[in-house]
UniProtKB/TrEMBL annotation:
Gene3D superfamilies: Cytochrome P450. Pfam families: p450. The chain crosses the membrane at residues 14-35. Belongs to the cytochrome P450 family. Its cofactor is heme. This is Benzoate 4-monooxygenase cytochrome P450.
Length: 533
């Protein structure tokens, strides 16, 4: 007869051995990280040297950019922000890490969580340099000057429709000098950004500024990106990735996971439709530039998953940063009356009518508008924290510091954009700093530009940069030409800092960013009235 052998429960001695072993391991790990690690000589709070959890917590709270700036103020231009990560705050480091095509770094593991629920990596998250280059070549026709020219009237129509909608919001008082009903600039900018990108990527007219029905998709982008942003910093992110698309994760993760899945399904359904719609073969949207096309150089042929994920990426990466910056621009417009007056003067005298507002010499001649956009981008760079890069075998010297392979390095846009060495009085909103004058020579502006990275730099810089500038110029020119804009009296302060909001969030005249990809935001709550002519 077989004898059933029951497992012997661990003896107290064995448990003691395990616990002691674990404690000893942790103590040795701490000693190694603080005193013996290759990065041990770099300054930073002890908690950062011991583990990556403080960084994760800051990312979860949306405060990372604020801590980057504070840490650099306290510890200098190089700070160890996690056991294996250095943060730099110099323009030389910025240009070394991101600026060159041949620099010995690649995008870090952190990127690998973002798109993976959709089945593969996009141009944004691809860490392999060769594969990324093929994707960029494949996409480039969608971002060519010709494509932009064809798409500009579509962008302009959507912006004009936006202006009509906000112009029709009814005020509550008849004696209010013609000021209309209030609206939250962060909310409306989100819908406008989504409408533009929906039209450009898929040729779909969502009308979310005007109607409720497609807002669930537009409202999904930021929560999904915020969630993926912080979970990508989990030490065990690699274990989370395969679970992202599962029902279990939808139950545990809740709304942000549902939001992410909704976006993936939406992009995928648009691509599937395109396969059936013969009449759209002549369309000029981005999907038509990508569908059925190969990389001309390597003949790499994208799979259906590549196509789905790239469309999703273009929609998300295109919509949310533009919306964030537009909300920031409206904030700084209503908080800086002399700046608004100068913009009004420039835009209303340059364009005889709104139909003249399009790309070309008139728009380019609006130097104050351009400076206003640069200054807004300085203060409200989407992705305000690190865009992490990992050093490849062979190492890399940054700011005369030879660093070993495997070290994660980065420069935070918020931190360097508020470094007084390059941007004097960094918390003063001043478009004038971008305009040459007797007191502001070209050399000063050049130094500021070398410490300016709202669109990233080098081979991984934003592919939509020119498009984004065009969108921002058109939107602000239309808005300012047509309307006076003011902050709504009874909702004063929404979007700005205040005492008690958190460390580094005290400035009332600073638009508050909640660090993510794009950034969390609110307000300002504003009203418009038709400009007198
Ligand atoms: C104000 C608006 C925008 C800002 C500030 C912005 C910023 C950025 C930044 C900082 C990166 C680099 C990310 C990194 O290194 O990891 C990036 C990448 C990217 N952006 Fe933008 N972006 C904007 C608008 C757009 C638009 C309109 C599109 C159009 C679809 C777009 C598409 C992309 C794509 C596809 C990438 C990945 C590029 C690559 O790695 O090859 N962005 N953007």
């Amino acid at each position: 007869m077989a004898i059933l052998k029951l497992p012997v429960p661990p003896t107290p001695n064995f448990l003691l051995f395990l616990v002691t072993g674990a404690i000893l391991y942790l103590i040795l790990l701490c000693i190694y990280r603080v005193y013996l690690h290759p990065l041990s000589k770099y300054p930073g709070p002890i908690s950062y040297k011991l583990s990556g959890w403080p960084l994760l917590w800051q990312a979860y709270k949306g405060d990372r950019h604020i801590w980057h700036l504070k840490d650099h103020e306290n510890y200098g231009p190089i700070v160890r922000i996690a056991p294996n990560t250095l943060s730099f705050n110099t323009s030389s480091a910025l240009n070394t890490i991101y600026g060159s095509r041949v620099v010995n770094v690649k995008k870090g593991e952190w990127y690998k969580t973002f798109d993976i629920a959709a089945g593969t990596y996009s141009s944004f998250t691809e860490t392999d340099k060769e594969k990324h280059a093929a994707k960029r070549r494949w996409m480039s026709p969608a971002f060519s000057d010709t494509s932009q020219k064809i798409n500009e009237p579509i962008i302009n129509d959507i912006i004009e429709r936006f202006c009509e909608t906000i112009g029709q919001k009814k005020g509550t008082r008849d004696d209010d000098g013609g000021w209309g009903g209030k609206w939250n600039a962060s909310v409306e900018a989100t819908y406008l950004g989504f409408d533009i990108m929906g039209a450009l990527v898929f040729g779909t007219d969502f009308k979310t500024v005007q109607e409720d029905k497609n807002r669930a998709i537009a409202d999904s982008i930021l929560p999904a990106s915020k969630f993926l942003y912080w979970i990508s910093y989990l030490p065990m992110a690699v274990l989370v990735r395969p679970l992202l698309r599962t029902r279990l994760f939808e139950i545990v993760g809740g709304k942000p996971i549902e939001d992410n899945n909704r976006l993936i399904d939406y992009a995928s359904s648009e691509v599937a439709e395109r396969g059936k719609e013969k009449e759209k073969e002549t369309a000029s949207d981005f999907l038509s530039h990508l569908y059925g096309k190969v990389d001309w150089k390597t003949r790499w042929r994208p799979t259906r998953a590549d196509l789905d994920v790239e469309c999703l990426n273009m929609m998300n990466a295109g919509a949310d940063p533009y919306s964030s910056v537009l909300a920031g621009a409206i904030f700084y417009l209503v908080h800086n009356e002399p700046v608004r007056q100068k913009l009004v003067g420039e835009i209303r005298t340059t364009f005889p009518s709104p139909s003249e507002i399009h790309s070309g010499p008139l728009l380019t001649s609006c130097t104050y508008l351009s400076a206003f956009i640069e200054e807004t981008l300085r203060r409200t760079a989407p992705v305000p924290s690190h865009l992490p890069r990992v050093i490849l075998p062979g190492g890399l010297t940054i700011d005369s510091q030879p660093l070993p392979s495997g070290t994660v390095v980065g420069v935070s846009a918020y931190s360097i954009h508020h470094n007084a060495l390059y941007h004097p009085s960094p918390f003063t909103f001043s478009p004038e700093r971008w305009i040459p004058s007797a007191s502001n020579p070209e050399s000063t502006i050049d130094a500021a530009k070398r410490a300016f990275e709202p669109f990233g730099l080098g081979s991984r810089a934003c592919v939509g940069k020119n498009l984004a500038y065009l969108q921002l110029r058109l939107t602000l020119a239309h808005l300012i030409w047509r309307f006076d804009v003011r902050e709504c009296e009874e909702e004063r302060g929404v979007g700005g800092g205040r005492e008690g909001l958190g460390v580094g969030r005290e400035r009332e005249d600073e638009f508050q960013l909640w660090d993510a990809l794009g950034f969390g935001r609110d307000g300002p709550v504003v009203q418009v009235r038709r400009a007198a002519r």
